[in-house]
Amino acid sequence: MASVAFTSSCPLGYSRIKSLAFSSRSCPNPVFSHPFLPKSTSHNSSFIKPLSLTPIITNNGIQKRHSKLTAKAAASTPAAVTPPSQQPWQGAALKPLIASIATGVILWFLPVPSGVSRNAWQLLSIFLATIVGIITQPLPLGAVALLGLGASVLTKTLTFSAAFSAFGDPIPWLIALAFFFARGFIKTGLGNRIAYQFVSLFGSSSLGLGYSLVFSEALLAPAIPSVSARAGGIFLPLVKSLCAACGSNVGDGTENRLGSWLMLTCFQTSVISSSMFLTAMAANPLSANLAFNTIKQQIGWMDWAKAAFVPGLVSLLVVPLILYVIYPPTVKTSPDAPKLAREKLEKMGPMSKNEIIMAGTLFLTVGLWIFGGVLNVDAVTAAILGLSVLLVTGVVTWKECLAESVAWDTLTWFAALIAMAGYLNKYGLISWFSQTVVKAKLF
């Protein structure tokens, strides 16, 4: 009777419960805390009651308990630690750095020529090491220049005030301010509008399209002192879209239709426009500063423009024509270029308020550069006035000026080179070198 009562009250069957009961003795579990056979107060078998399990055990309950135990075991197992990936070297490029340092060290320990002071020779070695670093670029240009200034101060070749004296020179600041102007041109889209306007008027033929791009780039050159900013930021996307509109693409055999000649023309003439104005390229103010330090000849913005405008204009007219003859495009007409330019202008809509302010500021600044001698306003003061207008009106924000890393980088290496070159002249090395060259030519 007892066995019948037991098996009838538990759907799992007797053998299953028996095995669980035995295992519960060796491994206590709250589920099996009640005994299977409760003891009676009498030894008479008639007092044995039908047995039941509390709680009732089912297959689902056992599976859930097993899954919980498995989850706890997995959670207690420590996760495999992935070793961190090795970070790439973010310091200086070692080979260019070694080349730069070796140049300075070798020159430093060479015998000093007669007529040259030891201090001048040491500064020359640091200066040439800095130049090699600027060419090979183990670090950004500003960082290389800062290392050169640090070396000159560390070796007592220059005092701190002498090494950093050129940061008060107006020429580096003129270039930095012109970079901020370039940011306004790109941000407002005024540069693109001017280029599209030229193309829509003169771009119906391949030669006219080339001239429209050349002269629009030259028009922007006084206010954008970087070939990279002008050619890369404004004109390269424009030229690529014009070539695609005329069916001339890179890599599909249609390059010679128009694209090759147009790219070569823009490349060659951007160098010409960069030499026409003092603020068209960063190297121009450096040349003006070296001329002043060497022969005491002041070259202002208008002086440079008057000297370079005529040869520059002739070159801008002749070079595209020469390239058109020796490297001609197979497509002589480009009716799609003016159409594309007009579509772009329609998409841009009328001139925005910021574009109008940018254009007015440009005329104001360039006008002061041209007539600054009469009005007694130097070029840097005119640039500061123009930038002040852009900042006050919100066309350019100060955060955008701070983010213009090329401007601050150029300011740093420009000032460093001007300081070193100025003190090389003060130490008499420039005059000694020029006299040596003259004597060598005479003999």
From TrEMBL:
Pfam families (alphabetical): Na_sulph_symp
Regions crossing the membrane: 93-111, 123-148, 160-182, 194-214, 261-283, 304-327, 356-375, 382-399, 405-424
Membrane topology classification: Multi-pass membrane protein
Keyword check for Magnesium: no
Record localization: Plastid, Chloroplast inner membrane
One function term, GO molecular function aspect: malate transmembrane transporter activity
Keywords of this entry: Membrane, Plastid, Plastid inner membrane, Transmembrane, Transmembrane helix
CDD domains for the chain: ArsB_NhaD_permease
One cellular-component annotation, GO: chloroplast inner membrane
Domain of life: Eukaryota
Family statement drawn from the similarity comment of this UniProt entry: Belongs to the SLC13A/DASS transporter (TC 2.A.47) family. DIT1 subfamily.
Listed PANTHER family: DICARBOXYLATE TRANSPORTER 2.1, CHLOROPLASTIC
Name under which the protein is recorded: Citrate transporter-like domain-containing protein
Organism: Gossypium tomentosum
